[in-house]
UniProtKB/TrEMBL annotation:
Signal peptide: none annotated. The lineage of its organism: Bacteria, Bacillati, Chloroflexota, Chloroflexia, Herpetosiphonales. InterPro entries: Bacilysin_H2HPP_isomerase (IPR052535), Cupin_2 (IPR013096), RmlC-like_jellyroll (IPR014710), RmlC_Cupin_sf (IPR011051), UCP037087 (IPR017102). Residues 47-115 form the Cupin type-2 domain. This is Cupin. It comes from Herpetosiphon geysericola. It comes from the Bacteria.
Length: 138
């Protein structure tokens, strides 16, 4: 594999300018993305989910997602009608296939922090909101 002459290693240092409000209804820190590092096939960012936070139902068109829970606990409904439920604790990994409807929520008293990687370099481009599913789960 030949390296592009423009390719370079990039270090992203967390700060406010890299934060963004996602379509999903949560706030993210965009670590690695096309916009921050020039990545071409992936993004990786941090999510701090406050106590009581809930994302909007959504899926990621044509892109897989991998999540590592750094701290706290979150719950997630997923499936074509959000019929499945999972509880994810610190130290656990989650894989979400491309196109899988889901929404995470934090019903606990403490903040949860996760590292999220996706096979989409433009983090928000593949997000498809699913308002048709939002009323299925409280």
């Amino acid at each position: 594999m030949l390296m592009s002459e423009q390719a370079d290693c990039v270090i992203i240092r967390p700060n406010e300018q890299h934060g963004f409000a996602g379509k999903q209804g949560l706030n993210y820190f965009a670590g690695i993305a096309a916009e921050t590092a020039g990545s071409q096939a992936l993004c990786m960012h941090m999510l701090r989910m406050p106590a009581g936070a809930r994302a909007n139902a959504h899926h990621h068109e044509n892109h897989e997602t991998a999540i590592y829970m750094l701290s706290g606990t979150v719950e997630m409904y997923y499936g074509h009608q959000l019929e499945r439920h999972a509880v994810v604790h610190a130290g656990e990994y989650v894989y979400i296939p491309a196109g899988m409807p889901h929404f995470p929520f934090n019903p606990y008293a403490e903040e949860a922090v996760a590292i999220i990687a996706r096979t989409d370099p433009n983090e928000q481009e593949s997000v498809v909101l699913r308002p048709d599913l939002d009323g299925l789960r409280a």
